[in-house]
Design a protein that fits this description.
- The protein has 253 residues and is mostly beta strands.
- It has a domain of 176 residues.
- 8% of the residues lie in helices and 26% in strands.
- It has 2 helices and 16 strands.
- Strands 1, 2, 3, 5, 6, 7, 8, 10, 13, 14 and 16 form an 11-stranded mixed beta sheet that branches. It has a 3-stranded antiparallel beta sheet with strand order 4-15-9, with no helix packed on it.
- A hairpin with a 5-residue loop joins strand 7 and strand 8.
- The longest helix has 10 residues.
- The N terminus is likely disordered.
Amino acid sequence: MFLACPRSCCTAAVLLVALTGVWSPRAVLVAAEPPAAPADAEAPAPPRPAARPDRHPELKRLSRTEEVWIDKARKEVVVGGKIVLDRGPIEVFACVEKTKEHEAIVATRSTARLIHAALLAIGLDPGSPVAFDPEYLPPKGPRVSVRLRWKDAAGKEQQARAQDWIRNAQTGKQLEADWVFAGSSFWRDPNDGVEYYQADGGDVICVSNFPTALLDLPLQSSQANAELLFEAFAGRVPPRDTEVDLILSAVPE
């Protein structure tokens, strides 16, 4: 077995969810891949996404089609992605690909729910998302370190903290706060009863407060366009389309 469950479910159940994608909102982990349609289904099952090459065979990969790995020895989650914005205002630092690339620095080749599952697997329990009614309550949860690893134009490996790439538009200084594992939330479609993990809409690592955020900043940050507090730190962010790994781990207390 490759995952130790940090909550009340057994290791076998965690492994089953990670490999098959069969899940429910009551499950500790969230879906990795959709289950195949039953043999007697009227409509044929949609084709499964093509498997992506395994760039980190030394680590435990959680999905054949999504780029999420667990480094058990270091208690780190590694997520594949690329730079999609290197200047301008941002609402999120990292989004799911094909969602919020116009306002994010990194797009991940993974769903937020699988990243959530991986964070559980390294021993982190989510807290609670931001609340605005009847008053502002910041998001809560264990602090999470976000680091980036990539290769420069000369092929030399580079690393940086995510904060190094984020500039406060009011002060001109880089972000210093750590993110917290808020854990997002579920939404049930009243038409068909299907429940959705809301961070899959793009809110993976946020710099503006969203109740849907997987990781959020524990400080008040508006999502109104005229009041956006943060922007990509021009000159520090690598060029667009640069391949990057996000490395997530617990911040030591």
